[in-house]
């Protein structure tokens, strides 16, 4: 194989690796990367059954099967190494997949085009914001999306088609429900609009079956959950303007995530937003050329992108419709965070950018740097927003005590709130690590509180039945909780010391079995 | 030749914007909080 061919073939994956190294920066040091939903813990337990996927409190299985896969990987690798491999793998998979989708063009420009698509798809506001929100499991689906599109548009016998599709959907399947939904909304139109007319019904059936089978790990517990979805989540999680061009401008420039804390630092300034908007215009113009040229896969991707953009706009511009749908059936809940469905639009723009770079010929090689230059502050862990830290030793000791106890019973994590901002984690907000550490059901407050910059807060009611029961007990007065907790099947209570006084007086009779600087563990 | 000049101009603009963005963001950040409870985020 000539050097040129080797570069063309493997270069995009290498570029993805380089971009991953640049984006993660300090997060690749020793320790765990902890931010919002990204909570990896040392020696994560491999748990199934009643604990499966929701921390055991009966909520929706949001971390299925991603947490189980991490636990399996951590059986052979240190958990922090597994996390870093997953995070770097996202960039490699995304870059190589986008490059593989680039249609043929002039030979001297095609390699540059493939690199351009790879750089664009592995370095954009969507990936950055979702990473800063800690949603690595969703990003598995995003990274695998180009490969899923390639498989869905592929040919061959039905058996081969199904096998290729199943392999391509593995990242999304590991990611869980969000990753799978984003993939489904993309591959269904691709199959419908790229396959021969006679093959379309069979292809759609195969896709439905493969997605259905791969979704069973989260679909079964979701259908059996007695959890509820609060329509207030639409107000909390709808797409929002993260720059000067409004919500629609933010979505078109591939941002618009609901959480202002997940913005890439500095992305909202006029200059940065303007050059990103200019790049969007160039990329969409290039993609329009592909569609006009009759490239079937591009036409199908355009349909998926419009559909995804429509979902994102629904919560932002017609929240009443989505609230009504969620009130009617909780299964519409995933659409409240609509911005995540613009993933196919990212792919369209990456391919459009590649087309423009094709036309530049040899000059196109320099264009590979453009996605980085228009969002430079994603580098170095978004300038410290992502970093590696160690858990204080007492977390490991509490984990060993609780997981070493053969007696059944749940653990309640206090104070009663879902998120923490520890000093040892640089003040970065994370989901309570107790939800991932223990091999028994963990009851935690899954109420989500989102602050409005304009003032006030949106409270999204808890989903899990156990959380609602325990929350009612805690809020129900100042009396003793010991007997009532025990009646709910609670064996341990984990309290952060700063809140010790608030709860100890209400847990009379409970035995302190570990007391550290930060944590107090009680056994009922 | 025109293509090269245009590419240089675009590159200079992008490099300028990127430099300003990085300088602004790289400023020192305040002490981190140590709050046991925290919001999921801000809109």
TrEMBL record, chain B:
> Quick check: keyword Signal in the entry?
yes
Name the UniProt key words of this record, in alphabetical order. Signal
Q: Where does the source fall among the domains of life?
A: Bacteria
Signal peptide start-end: 1-20
Q: What is this protein called?
A: DUF2613 family protein
């Amino acid at each position: 194989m000539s050097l040129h061919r080797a570069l063309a073939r493997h270069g995009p994956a290498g570029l993805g690796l380089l971009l991953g190294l640049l984006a993660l920066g300090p997060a690749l040091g020793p320790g765990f990367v902890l931010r919002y939903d990204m909570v990896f813990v040392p020696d994560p337990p491999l748990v199934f059954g009643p604990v499966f996927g929701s921390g055991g409190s009966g909520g929706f299985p949001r971390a299925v099967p991603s947490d189980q896969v991490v636990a399996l990987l951590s059986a052979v690798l240190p958990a922090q190494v597994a996390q870093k491999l997953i995070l770097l793998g996202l960039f490699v998979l995304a870059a190589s997949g986008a490059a593989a989708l680039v249609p043929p063009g002039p030979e001297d420009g095609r390699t540059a085009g493939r690199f351009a698509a790879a750089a664009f798809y592995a370095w954009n506001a969507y990936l950055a914001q979702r990473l800063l929100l800690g949603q690595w499991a969703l990003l598995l689906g995003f990274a695998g999306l180009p490969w899923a599109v390639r498989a869905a548009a592929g040919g061959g016998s039905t058996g081969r088609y199904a096998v290729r599709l199943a392999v391509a959907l593995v990242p999304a399947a590991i990611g869980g429900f969000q990753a799978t939904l984003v993939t489904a909304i993309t591959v269904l139109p691709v199959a419908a609009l790229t396959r021969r007319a006679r093959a379309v019904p069979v292809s759609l059936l195969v896709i439905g079956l493969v997605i259905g089978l791969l979704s069973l790990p989260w679909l079964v517990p979701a259908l059996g959950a007695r959890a509820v979805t609060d329509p207030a989540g639409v107000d909390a999680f709808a797409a929002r303007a993260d720059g000067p061009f409004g919500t629609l401008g933010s979505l078109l420039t591939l941002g618009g995530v609901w959480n202002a804390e997940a913005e890439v630092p500095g992305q909202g300034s006029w200059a940065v937003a303007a050059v990103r908007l200019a790049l969007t215009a160039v990329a969409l113009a290039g993609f329009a050329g592909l569609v006009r040229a009759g490239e079937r896969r591009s036409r199908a991707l355009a349909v998926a992108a419009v559909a995804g953009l429509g979902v994102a706009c629904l919560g932002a511009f017609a929240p009443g419709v989505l609230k009504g749908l969620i009130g009617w059936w909780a299964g519409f809940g995933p659409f409240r965070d609509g911005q995540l469905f613009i993933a196919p639009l990212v792919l369209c723009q990456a391919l459009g950018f590649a087309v423009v770079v094709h036309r530049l010929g040899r000059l196109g090689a320099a264009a590979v740097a453009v996605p980085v230059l228009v969002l430079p502050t994603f580098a170095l862990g978004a300038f410290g927003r992502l970093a590696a830290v160690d858990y204080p030793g007492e977390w490991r000791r509490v984990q060993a005590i609780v997981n070493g106890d053969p007696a059944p019973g749940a653990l309640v994590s206090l104070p009663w709130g879902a998120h923490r901002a520890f000093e040892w984690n640089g003040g970065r907000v994370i989901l309570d690590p107790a939800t991932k550490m223990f091999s028994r059901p963990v009851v935690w407050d899954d109420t989500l509180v989102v602050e409005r910059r304009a003032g006030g807060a949106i409270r999204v009611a808890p989903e899990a039945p156990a959380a609602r029961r325990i929350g009612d007990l805690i809020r129900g007065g100042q009396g003793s909780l010991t007997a009532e907790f025990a009646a709910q099947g609670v064996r341990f209570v984990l309290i952060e010391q700063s809140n010790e006084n608030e709860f100890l007086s209400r847990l009379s009779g409970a035995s302190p079995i570990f007391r550290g600087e930060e944590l107090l563990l009680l056994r009922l | 030749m025109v293509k090269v000049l245009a590419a240089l101009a675009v590159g200079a603009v992008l490099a300028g914007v990127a430099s300003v963005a990085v300088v602004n963001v790289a400023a020192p950040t305040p002490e981190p909080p140590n709050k046991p409870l925290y919001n999921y985020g801000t809109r």
